[in-house]
Write a structure and sequence with these properties.
Elements (H helix, E strand, L loop, with lengths): L2 E5 L14 E4 L11 E5 L17 H32 L5 H13 L15 H11 L18 H11 L9 H7 L4 E2 L9 E4 L14 E7 L2 E4 L8 E4 L5 E5 L6
Antiparallel strand pairs: 1-3, 2-3, 4-9, 5-6, 5-9, 6-7, 7-8
Helix pairs in contact: 3-4
Amino acid sequence: MFAVQQPTNGTLDTLGSFGFPPTALPPGLGGFGDAGALQRVGAPGLNLPSVNFGGVPDAGATQMLALSQQTNQLLLGMMSLLVGLMSNRSAGGSSPLAAQAGSADTGSTNSIASTGDAPKVANPKVQKLMDSALSKQGAPYVFGAAGPDKFDCSGLVSWALGQAGSKVGHMNARGLQAHYKQNKVSKEELQPGDLVFFWSPNDRGIPPGQASHVEIYLGNGMTMGTDSAKEGAKKEPINWSSFIGGARPPELQ
């Protein structure tokens, strides 16, 4: 049940549009004096027989009217909030929840997977390695090429190592794996700038356990490398299914 009281000399019928007809009550009821009052009553409505029609409500009616007034304030507050939300929506605004969701979505674009940059690390040589490799995104894949404009997988890694100050020279994937065999790191130990080695079935006679492919680990499950003439050099999620190990070049530490 809810009710809204207003003097008979008022002109605003706040709940008229909601379909509640006015009900006339005797003068003196609810503190409105001889002018009387109108009260909109929602089912089951006010129990009029409980009112003392001598002009002063009895104790039960007084409690009911006090409760009605509190309910009125709550309902009017809710309606004001609803009207405000509807107006904001029609004006193109968004709710606080939508704003929070948008903020969360915006923040997610800061991950390595969604930017074109390497993560920032304290070691300038490691940073140079990753930045150099990433600068060649889109470079054509050519088997045996080691830059500066065309690369195969080991050619890109060897070139980037050289840019970072390494003297390792151009080696294929198996050569790099063997060269850094004393500097192995596991999947759990990988850090940005580590070399990552892979094996997959091939027509070059490379057996399982020996690297048929190599890339540079960027962190956050991403690598930079090249292995396809169709795609060229690119940053991509690491292929854990063919991953066989990693290595950390000591000359860059």
